[in-house]
């Protein structure tokens, strides 16, 4: 009987490790929200599953509405999008 209980704990720990490491972040966030609704602390769950704690509405911003987290694109001389040029030096040896 003890052997079956220990195997159950090992399997549960392996499942938690796999969920923490290999699941996509959107699935991990939904797991955090579902467990938080059942009374578990959301901030600790978010740290464990390596996600950000948020309100759970699905928008992913929670408190930063209106603020853009993306850096602005550097301006270019012709008014179009900035482009990088990679120069290739081909040598025949």
UniProtKB/TrEMBL annotation:
Pfam families: DUF6587. It comes from the Bacteria. Residues 63-83 are annotated as: Disordered. This is Uncharacterized protein. It comes from Pseudoduganella guangdongensis.
């Amino acid at each position: 009987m003890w052997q079956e209980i220990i195997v159950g704990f090992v399997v549960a720990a392996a499942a938690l490790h796999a969920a923490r490491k290999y699941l996509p972040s959107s699935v991990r966030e939904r797991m955090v929200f579902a467990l938080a609704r059942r009374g578990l602390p959301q901030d600790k769950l978010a740290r464990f599953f390596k996600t950000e704690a948020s309100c759970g509405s699905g928008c992913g911003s929670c408190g930063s509405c209106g603020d853009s987290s993306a850096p602005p694109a550097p301006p270019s001389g012709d008014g179009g999008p900035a482009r990088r040029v990679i120069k290739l030096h081909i040598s025949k040896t």
